[in-house]
């Protein structure tokens, strides 16, 4: 039968209830959709417009160098290089730069530190509040803190902005950079929540 | 610089008889972008001059070791960046400063140093940028002022582009917040 010959009342779609779409989005999904979309767009690489949020400002350079500064720079650098190479040939080490004395000083400092630790005893157990950035970094390196958690604490762009492969490539440099962004108290709270 | 030209230039930099002349070309080509890259980090001209000279002296000494794995520009920016950070760290140690003191000090230099001029909003923008942590400031400067692509910044700092984008995004938000609050 030719489809055009099918009587109109042979096929009937189920009655659609008002407002029903057949699919459901998570609660609150549309509430912040525009904001999330804008964040993602801002994160895209647009060489012609590197900062959509600062487009109202010209990229003016407020710094300047003294007149003639650049004209003489190469000459000054070469003079410094030649001077250093020249003095390097006949350089006499000062008494405090001599290796034997440096070893002696290093040994004395080590001894002082060891004696200091022995006299003062081991440090007390730390709470989360006492962690420094370096210690948190050490935890990150030992995979106690995942990159995804740091991004979650940062709020944006959020772990969903990065693939697992990409996050897998992140090392100390990336986490170090982003840890600057994180309020350590928030990170500590998130860590405690994860542990519970 | 086109790759073929860059290879020939690197060869000239590494050959003893052409080295000094080629190095002069290198300084001439990169002195201004590197100066402003450094200046935005250390603020005062005299400090930028020291760090820039150190950068080129290090580059001269490293010429034989340059294998062309990265572009010359990336290599120089990496040296300049490391020298700037080393300078700021030494300054912190020398003056027993913590990070907040150093940032205050740099903002103070912005008000006091010669060879700084611009509209009030541009000075404020620079003050806002100086509130950012060092590494984030580097990311912001290279992206915003130097107009570098994330791939190039990634090669300089050794950080993935994803992390750079996240860091830059937050930097812009912080700068905006500072500008908004300071104009209220």
Judged by helices, strands and strand pairing, the structural class of chain A is mainly alpha
How many DSSP E strands of chain A? 0
Coarse structural class of chain B: mainly alpha
Order of helices and strands of chain B: HHHHHHHHH
What is the number of strand segments of chain B?
0
Distance between the termini of chain A: 66 Å
Radius of gyration of chain B: 18 Å
- Radius of gyration of chain A, taken over Cα atoms and rounded to an integer in Å: 32 Å
Largest interface: A-B, 46 and 56 residues
Short description:
Chain A has 196 residues and is an all-alpha fold. In chain A, 47% of the residues lie in helices and 0% in strands.
Commentary on this structure:
The complex is a heterodimer of chains A (196) and B (184). Chain A is 47% helix and 0% strand. Chain A has 196 residues and is an all-alpha fold. The termini of chain A are far apart. With 184 residues, chain B is mostly helical. In chain B, helix 6 crosses helix 9. The longest helix of chain B has 24 residues. Chain B is globular, with a radius of gyration of 18 Å. The termini of chain B are far apart. The model of chain B has no long low-confidence stretch (mean pLDDT 86).
Primary descriptors:
heterodimer, A: 196 residues, mainly alpha, elongated, B: 184 residues, 78% helix, globular
Secondary-structure map:
The complex is a heterodimer of chains A (196) and B (184).
Chain A: H1 33-43, H2 73-89, H3 99-120, H4 133-141, H5 147-154, H6 164-169, H7 172-179, H8 184-195
Chain B: H1 3-14, H2 19-42, H3 45-62, H4 72-94, H5 99-112, H6 120-129, H7 134-145, H8 150-157, H9 161-183
Helix pairs in contact in B: 1-2, 2-3, 2-4, 3-4, 4-8, 6-9, 7-9
